[in-house]
Amino acid sequence: MENSHQPPLRWQCTWHAGPDAGAVHTFGPGSHVLGRAAHATLTADDPALAPHHAVLEVGPDGRGTLTQLAGGPPIRVDGAAMNGGGDGPVELAAGAWLEVGTSLLRLQRGGEPLADGAVHLHCGAVVRSARAVSQWTPQLAVTPDPPGPGDERAGGLLPALAGVAASGVLALVLRQPTFILFGLLGAVVAIASWGAQRIAFARRHRRALAAHQCAVQAARDADARARVAFRAHHEQKVPTVVTALGVAHHRGDRLWARRLDHGDATLAALGLGDVAWPLPDDRATHSQPPVAGMAIAVDLRAGSRLAVRGPQARGVARSLLMQLATSCGPADVRIVIVTAQPTAWASLRDLPHLTLPDESSAVIDETGLATVLAEWEGHRGQLVVVTDDPALLAVRTSPLRRLLADTSAHALIAVLPTDATVPHICTAALTTTDGPTAQWVADTSDTASPQCIRVAALGERSATRTTAALRGLVDPEDPLSMATNMPRALSLVDLHGGALADAEAILHTWATVGRDPAPRALVGMAVDGAVDIDLVRDGPHGLIAGTTGAGKSELLRTLVVGMAANARPEHLTFVLIDYKGGATFDACAALPHVVGVITDLDEHLADRALRSLHAELRRREALLRAHGAADLPALRATDPQVVLPRLVVVIDEFAALVSEQPTFLHALVGVAQRGRSLGVHLLLATQRPQGVISDDVRANTNLRLALRLQDAADALDVAGTADAAHLPRSVPGRAVLRLGADEHVTFQTAHCTQHADGDESPLQLLVGAIVEAARQTDEPAPVGPWQPPLPAMLHPSEVPHGALGLIDDPDQQRIRPLHRDSDEGHLLIAGSAGSGATSTLCTLAAHTLATTSDHVYVLDAHGTNEFDGLAQHPRCGAVIRIRERERVARLLHRLRARSGDPAATSPRIVLVIDGLDTARRALDHPSTMDEYDVLHDLLTTADANAVTIIAAVEHTAAVSAAFIARCADRWVLHLHDPHDGAALGAHAANVPPAQPGRVYLATCGLTAQLVRPGEPLHQQQPITDPLAPPAPRIDTVPPIVIASSLAPGTHHDGTTALSIGVDVTTGRTHVLRVHLGEHVLVVGGARTGRTTALAHLAAQWRRLHPAGWVGALTLRRGGPLDALPPADLHDLCQLPHGRPALLIVDDADRVDDADGRLAALAAGGRVCLFAAGKPDALRLSYGHWTGVVRRSRIGLVAAGGSELDGDLLGTLLPRRTPIAPRPGLMWAIDDSGPHLTQVAIPGGDRCTDLLPH
Predict the structure, then answer these.
(1) What is the rounded distance in angstroms from the CA atom of residue 387 to the CA atom of residue 417?
(2) Which residues pair with 291 in a beta bridge?
(3) What is the Cα–Cα distance from 1199 to 1204, expressed in whole angstroms?
(4) Domain boundary at 188, 214, 234, which?
(5) Which of 392, 667, 777, 925 is most enclosed, with most CB atoms within 10 A?
């Protein structure tokens, strides 16, 4: 009771208009494809629909969303257009109307039955239900007129104003201001009186407006109730193609309930449109809007003449006829179709309203019209004549024209091409287009403009299915009777003498058939007795053809269960392939003889089955060759202990299989040719033999059986006679068996799924008996031609140690473990979002860490947390997100250095990239062009022995062909666009479904299932091999670097290498090389660490020159340079030659050199100058002594400054840095170029290490 008020989880889709209207689909939670594809959940034969037009998602809570997949015009939901699917899914409300292609459909929660109950059938005869004719009397609610504006006179306002003006004049003339006071007093009194009048008027007007609004609302409510009642009445009165199909398929109690004495008996709906509001003439004071979205009716009563033209004319005619066929029985309405194209009306041939006494159909040409009318002589109902040949209406002497001469008798539906004119005898006309709308003229004599409506046509396949639902029904009030020379139906029980064999009888049969039982089964009854089929005698291969509803599936079931009852599983096995969804062999799949079942739902199983069949043929050939036997009977005669059962491969609807697998037909012919002596038999069944029966198929299928076919050419092609095209449509199971070139047998096949008195069908009973008999034999189950399919989930404990998964190898009929090592080279994995690509990379990385001593680095472009467990492993150097620019740059440069030195002794590096395409897009920016180039070089030139790349992509188009060519392995997971796998060598049919861990190995053409991660990665034990060195970490450079943590600098041959800080790119100590006679300039603004950097440089120089002289020129006190002795330029000039000297000048831009001594010292080369200043001031100081220092082009430039700062040292600096500017982050510039460096700070509170030692 708790969920009684919750909305239902299931949805119902009703196709109300379009080229293939009438269908009703019910579906529950999950993904459902809407489109033209046959396997779509919501499908219709609408040419404007794409095969996969949209996806309708129903969540666990029953909420539905719609996502457009196809291009073209957007889907309209309740009149609002979707933006081509670009805005993402659209949530659907219950009762939403969708305009898709040229169709109009409605989505509702739950499912409302189209019929109140089921019609009662008695021995196939329809017992009509009583029907009350709907009545409705229109009533119009009168809307009152709105209240008028009323009396809005100004009252005393104007006189008061005039009095004020007069008093002002008097006061001015008489020079007495008192007159103004008297005037104002009178004005105040007048204005107050006028305001009181206005307030009273406003109150009266508001009350009048409120009363009017109540009256208007009451009238609107009454009108709305009347319109709801009118809509319900109209829906009861006018049938639609939706109700017609629902009544036909569900055998609803509305079936044939309308009689000719009902006023609405022959109404039918053309489509949807606006219906005028039926107002009473004496009360119609003004026009009323029409009622939208109603069924537009046409009355096909006697004397009506309807012309339908345009591309959808035939579909509209089918819809009208199907509505009549469900509303009225054959006793009230008979239909005759006069046409020169009978195949165009094949979907309606089996309607009881068209069936003639000789079981033929009233789909005839002009010459047969007289014969049909003669056979229907005495029929007191109405005759509806349909023709698609307008010439017959133009010839005055034609039989059709004479039949329609009486304008009060019979009804006519003329189906015309687009360019044809409407015949003058037609009183109504509908002109269809390729679009969703049509022009409807209810009366051709009226000059009014045509009405635009949405047509509701009926597709051929829907018409065929509905006709099949009505086939065989009998109108007990119809005086016409059916005649036949053969039983119309034959049960499997009757074929076997009234009783099916039980388990003991089957065991007895198996014991008496010998060591080589024939694959034989009773299938039906001819005039002269029972008919059986023996694949050895009549085959070894067979071809069965029959259109929808002809009984082909029943025949296949009868064949399979009959053969199974005559041979035990060790002698006979079956592989059942059903490309109609799997329903054909549902019950037969339980047979112990069945070793494999394939349906069209298994998209990737067809190729596997074909390869396995070829492997099975090779196995059988080897077995016969080993025993020296020419064929299977010889093997069984020479060595009865060898178990090699006959294998019968039954394929239902192999035409669909061939259309999806174009190479399958040729492969099947190869199986047939080689399997003749190996005990392999093929039974091919199809509804559409045209185009799929090649000469090779015809030459290898001796057994030919044709049930009812639509085309005489197909019948000749299959059975060698056209008789199958003329079999009665009302008798399913009638077949023609070809025994020889000129010998044919027509017989009635047995049906086995129709329930008798018990709960189980004959098929279920016989299958149960065979299963019980096999259980009593206690024999092992037969071995199939292929291994069981790969599991959907694979735990690590289910595979050998060190294996990544299992590989399905149908060519060898085995399942083998999947192993992969880094020595095999690069690996590229393609998989859409949600396909498990990230999990696969995690598994591969963990496998590498667990089985090798390689170092692993992860570049994560998706930002997931699945790799976090790897980071704790000692040989996982880093897990880096693509947004961490600093670490990304350091990683890529380290990998480039390792790739450029393949002879190095350090362990191999395995680079795991999750989202290679995303990473390339993220780095494809002017600020990261260096990193992009490095990544590109790694992908195209990296030595796999030094750096092995394992990358995953969502879109292969974003990966260069050069890298794909260098990948030794290419794995394909599920792709939303299967054609995207072509770049990796995977055909669209080989792309795995949306199943986690299922992967296609493109390099070897096999499918594998990867293990799902077992224990979390951070809980897995790392290798404890002491010889396996840990991977160097890649961390960010800290904002503060202590000088003592740096590698020491060096001084050699006059070159001083100063350890200044940590290189941001490499993470190592960076040295600034200062040659003899050169100087260093530190450039930076306030609070950039300029003075601290200068102090650190001085400390580093002092450690390398302990005997050198150090002095400072500073204008500011309290800084890190306070510990340095002040410099005396006069003493500096007296220093002996050969002693190193360092002069430090802070705020150099503020230090003047009036006497030129600083410039002379810098130019002399005896003293090394370390100067620091602000960049703007230095650029503006023309002729300044720092120009000599700048000529050395050595120094530090603070990051984050102006683009022109590098010009001070003759270097163009990058505009952006991997990390945000901060104190101490500087570009170190020397002969090696600019290097972004975090400059260290000296140790201690003050720069005491600057003092001489």
Answers:
(1) 12
(2) 275
(3) 12
(4) 234
(5) 392
The Cα–Cα gap between 712 and 580 comes to: 24
> Which is higher by pLDDT, 1209 or 1244?
1209
Nearest to 1162 by CA among 1132, 1186, 1133: 1186
- Does residue 270 fall inside a structural domain? no
The CATH code of the domain that includes 34 is: 2.60.200.20
CA dist 10 and 63 (Å) reads 9
In angstroms, the CA 806 to CA 1191 distance is: 68
Examine the fold and report which residue of 720, 755, 777 is the final residue of a domain before the chain moves on.
Answer: 777
- Quick count: other Cβ atoms within 10 Å of Cβ 313? 25
Give the Cα-Cα-Cα angle 753, 755, 756 (nearest 5 degrees).
130
pLDDT bin (cut points 50, 70, 90) of residue 282 is very low
- C-beta neighbour count of 863 within 10 angstroms: 11
Residues 466 and 499 occupy one common structural domain? no
Q: Which amino acid is at 897?
A: A
Do 605 and 690 belong together in one domain? yes
Return the sign of the alpha-carbon dihedral for residues 424, 428, 434, 437: positive
Reported in sequence order, the residue ranges of 677-722 that DSSP labels E, i.e. its strands, are 680-686, 703-707
Q: Parallel, antiparallel, or unpaired: how do β-strands 1195-1198 and 30-35 relate? A: unpaired
Domain span holding position 1002: 821-1019
Which position has the token pair 């997949």?
Answer: 69
Residue 897 falls inside a structural domain? yes
Q: What is the number of structural domains in the chain? A: 6
| Mean pLDDT for all residues in the chain | 84
Q: 1007 and 1054, same structural domain? A: no
Q: How far is CA 124 from the centre of its chain?
A: 45
> Do residues 662 and 740 share a domain?
yes
Q: Would you say residue 142 lies in a domain?
A: no
pLDDT class of 283 with cuts at 50, 70, 90: very low
Residue 949: how many CB atoms within 10 A of its CB? 25
d(C-alpha 959, C-alpha 154), whole Å: 84
> What's the token pair of residue 501?
């064999």
Which tens digits make up the pLDDT trace of 652-685? 888 877 777 777 777 777 888 888 888 889 899 9
Buried/exposed 316-331: b ≥16 CB within 10 Å, e otherwise: bbbbbbbbbbbbbbbb
- What is the DSSP track for 1195-1238? EEEETTS-TTGGGGGT----S--SS---TTEEEEEETTEEEEEE
Task: Provide the 3-class DSSP secondary structure of residue 308.
Answer: strand
Nearest to 808 by CA among 968, 578, 1008, 957: 1008
pLDDT of residue 224: 81
Q: Are residues 1064 and 1010 in the same domain?
A: no
Please report, for the domain that includes residue 1231, its CATH number: 3.40.50.300
Q: How far apart (Å, rounded) are the C-alpha atoms in residues 996 and 842?
A: 14
Task: Tell me the mean pLDDT in the region 17-33.
Answer: 92
CA distance 1205 to 1229: 12
Tokens encoding 1068: 């190592």
Are residues 726 and 593 located together in one domain of the fold? Answer: yes
Q: Are residues 854 and 756 in the same domain?
A: no
Q: Which residues of 1179-1190 are buried (b: 16+ CB within 10 A; e: fewer)?
A: eebeebbbebbb
Q: What is the pLDDT of residue 1024?
A: 42
In the chain, the N- to C-terminal Cα span, in Å, equals 92
Radius of gyration of the chain (CA): 46
* Among 324, 374, 330, 318, CA closest to 355: 330
Using DSSP's 3-state secondary structure scheme, residue 404 falls into coil
Q: 24 and 87 in one domain?
A: yes
Q: Is residue 1036 part of a domain?
A: no
**What is the identity of the amino acid at 341?**
Q
Which residue spans within 417-497 are E strands per DSSP? 428-432, 437-441, 451-455
Answer with the residue of higher pLDDT: 696 or 22. 22
